[in-house]
Amino acid sequence: GEIYSAVKAVDKDIIVGVSPQGNMENNYEYMYADVKKWCSEEGYIDYICPQIYFGFEYPKEGFDFLSLCKRWREICGETELDIALAAYKIGTTDGGSDEWKEHDDILKRQAEYVKNAGAGLCIYGFSTLFSDSKQSAAELENLKNSSF
Fold first, then answer.
1. What are the CB-based long-range contacts (under 8 Å, 24+) for 36-44?
2. Closest by alpha carbon to 3, among 32, 40, 46?
3. CA spacing 20 to 30 A to 40: which of 28, 55, 96, 134?
4. pTM score
5. How far apart are the C-alpha atoms of 93 and 135, rounded to whole Å?
6. In this structure, what DSSP letter does residue 64 have?
7. CA separation (Å) from 11 to 44, 49, 69, 78, 147?
8. If you average pLDDT over every residue of the chain, what do you get?
9. CB 93 within 8 A of CB 101
């Protein structure tokens, strides 16, 4: 609350937000970030942008994209929720899943889900979409053709 108060004392129109790990347990146990408190009580943040850098087929139970989005939506209450997506994972194996190698519409499907959930969107590794990779080019084209 002190950082938020200090920023707002300078200019009440400045927007204060954080972008924690998508893994809530890591936020508490290793980062000492009380994201639930920040989202449920006034005076901490105006928005939160969790790094949900997981695909739809991430093999660890509860860490797939949809499960994490739902968990974050549940704790946000009135706090604005933006979701950070992982373009940098295009063409990679992630947690033992080859989803990012086998599909070229993951970001499109994620962006559409985010829009339908009423959240904002951020893409990390944005330059990945403009690499020389055919898969990145296809992912970018699919993202452009999304309803987001």
1. 36/75, 38/79, 39/75, 39/76, 39/77, 39/79, 40/75, 40/77, 40/79, 43/1, 43/4, 43/5, 44/1, 44/4, 44/16
2. 46
3. 55
4. 0.92
5. 14
6. S
7. 15, 22, 31, 21, 35
8. 95
9. yes
Which residues, including other chains, have CB under 8 Å from residue 6's CB and lie 6 or more apart?
A: none
**Would you state the pLDDT for residue 146?**
85
pLDDT of residue 77: 86
The terminus-to-terminus CA distance of the chain in angstroms comes to 33
- Over residues 76-132, the pLDDT tens digits come to 988 999 999 999 999 999 999 999 999 999 999 999 999 999 999 999 999 999 999
Pairwise CA distance, residues 129 & 144, whole Å: 11
Rounded CA-CA distance 145/93 in Å is: 25
Counting runs of H as helices and runs of E as strands, what totals does the chain give? Answer: 7, 4
Which residues on adjacent β-strands are paired with residue 95?
none
User: pLDDT value at position 96?
Assistant: 94
Ramachandran quadrant class, 66 (left: phi over 0; alpha: psi -120 to 50; beta: rest): alpha
CA pair distance 136, 141, nearest whole angstrom: 9
